[in-house]
Design goal:
CATH topology: Coagulation Factor XIII, Chain A, domain 1
Oligomer: single chain
CATH class: Mainly Beta
Helix content: 10-25%
Shape: flat
Number of helices: 2
Distance between the termini: 70 Å
Number of strands: 12
Number of domains: 1
CATH architecture: Distorted Sandwich
Order of helices and strands: HEEEEEEEEHEEEE
Radius of gyration: 19 Å
Structural class: alpha+beta
Strand order of the largest sheet: 1-2-4-8
Largest sheet: 4 strands, antiparallel
Length: about 190
């Protein structure tokens, strides 16, 4: 009986350690990805879409709104905390508190992978957090297997001809229970000829 009790305690501790490592690793990956991009990328001529509330400003930048087929689409967003406190802790399920989605009316070209791990991030007032577009998603037994394989192996965002709705949106709450959800999004149309 004592052995079962010790084994149970050890298993619980190992699971707790594993979840902690995954969560920390995810935050480090986010931090590394965001540090790769600087505000210097905000170039003249980029289209700007903005949404804000009393606590946050979300800006989305895209190089243009009309592209040639397979031309690189440069898109990224920024998030800034502008509330009354010096900093704010935000809560999100998964590895990202911000999402970029692309939809052509029938296909979602960016399928967010959501982990069921609750993570926290602290945002400092006045700091601009750069949120690059990063492809994520998966496919199995899809009639377009070859397309998806090419799409996910290319780092750059390139799309086939069509009309697309791009949405850049927050995916976090101001509380651990995920009841104070922050809903800010920038939505716009992009055409590829």
């Amino acid at each position: 009986m004592k052995i079962k009790r010790y084994l149970t305690i050890i298993i619980v501790l190992l699971i707790t350690l594993l979840v902690s490592l995954i969560s920390n690793g995810t935050q480090e990956i986010q931090k590394a990805n965001y540090e790769l991009f600087t505000v210097d990328r905000i170039k003249e001529g980029y289209h700007l879409f903005t949404n804000k509330d009393e606590n946050f400003i979300v800006n989305t930048y895209i190089s243009k709104l009309s592209f040639e087929e397979n031309e690189e689409i440069d898109i990224f967003s920024t998030l800034e905390y502008i509330g009354k406190k010096k900093s704010v802790q935000i809560w999100s399920v998964g590895h990202s508190y911000f999402n970029h989605n692309i939809f052509d009316g029938s296909i979602n070209y960016h399928k967010n992978i959501v982990l069921t791990i609750l993570t926290t991030t602290r945002l400092i007032k006045g700091e601009t957090y750069i949120l690059p577009f990063i492809k994520e998603g998966s496919y199995t037994d899809d009639p377009k297997d070859e397309f998806w394989k090419k799409y996910y192996t290319e780092k750059e965002l390139k799309l086939p001809s069509g009309n697309y709705t791009f949405t850049a949106s927050t995916g976090f709450s101001l509380d651990e229970d995920l009841k104070e959800h922050v809903n800010l999004e920038n939505k716009f149309k992009v055409s590829v000829q």
